[in-house]
Write a structure and sequence with these properties.
One of its GO terms (molecular function) is lipid binding. This protein is α/β, with parallel strands linked by helices and about 290 residues long. The protein contains 10 helices and 13 strands. The relative contact order is 0.16.
Length: about 290
């Protein structure tokens, strides 16, 4: 598996759903990026996850006593942004958390009917938020290294399988409303000021560690990152926050204090879907 000589010698389009907050600007004329939004439903109102006011979204979620519902992009929505004259790389939130991946696969079938399905590659990020961000960025990096599409597909899929995703919650409200945890468990957690560190495992969410207090949770997460990362000098660490830039900077400082030599530490602000998952003050990281 070798890189081709020119970078890239074909137009490439990266398509992400709105669980990613990667900037849509590319520094190369042959690479374009576009985002396909989810929809969020609170009571009787619909929000398109595109340039949302996050503070307003959080307020509306907390005022509602009902479940916050989300709807992934339709196959047609993915198909409509595919470029028949480019190689299309589609990245979605974990298929264990949403049907977005299935929609993208159906869009590929639609592209096959139109004669360009061989130029569509679908990636299940097995993650969300920061993990999806890193996957999209790694596709760009691999494109810049000049790999052919089929080789790139296998390289990026291998990258995904070795990626780790963690998050720290500051609120249990949405998890209770969406039936993820019992109200009694959330009440005990709130009274004891417990902030759980959760981990993505095979695309699903599992409890990694319970910490009393947000500050301790961030410190523990920094230690977990330092202990688990392999070859950090070759990797990026992505930190995504929900309306909590100071918390993201504190975690960045805590990681730097461990002297773990990441290639770079990137900070993103969560979009609407990430806000629904992690809620006010939540932090999602991936490496």
């Amino acid at each position: 598996m070798t890189a081709i000589n020119s970078f890239p010698d074909y137009p490439a389009r990266i398509i992400i759903d709105s669980c990613s907050e990667v900037a849509l600007q590319s520094d190369h004329h042959n690479i374009s990026l576009t985002r396909v939004p989810f929809k969020i439903y609170i009571d009787d109102d619909e929000f398109v996850d595109q340039d949302l006011n996050r503070s307003e979204l959080i307020d509306r979620m907390h005022l509602s006593k009902n479940k916050v519902r989300t709807a992934c992009p339709s196959p047609q929505a993915f198909f409509d942004v595919m470029d028949p004259n480019a190689v299309n790389f589609v990245v979605t939130i974990s298929s264990k958390l949403s049907s977005s991946y299935n929609s993208a696969c159906l869009a590929k079938s639609m592209a096959e009917e139109k004669g360009f399905g061989d130029r569509v590659y679908i990636f299940d990020s097995l993650s969300a938020v920061s993990g999806e961000d890193l996957t999209a960025l790694y596709i760009i990096e691999t494109l810049k290294r000049g790999f052919k599409p089929n080789d790139l597909f296998h390289i990026v899929r291998d990258y995904i399988t070795h990626m780790s995703t963690y998050f720290v919650l500051n609120s249990f409200e949405n998890l209770v409303k969406n039936g993820r945890i019992k109200h009694s468990v959330a009440l005990v957690g709130k009274l004891l000021k417990i902030n759980p560190i959760m981990k993505g495992v095979n695309g699903e969410i599992e409890l990694k560690e319970k910490c009393r207090g947000h500050k301790k949770a961030l410190f523990s997460l920094a230690k977990i990152i330092s202990n688990e990362v392999e070859s950090p000098q070759t990797k990026n660490l992505a930190i995504t926050h929900v309306n909590a830039p100071e918390t993201a900077l504190k975690l960045k400082a805590a990681v730097e204090k461990t002297e773990t030599p990441f290639k770079s530490i990137l900070i993103f602000e969560s979009g609407g879907l990430g806000t629904v998952y992690a809620d006010q003050g939540g932090i999602v990281i991936a490496f």
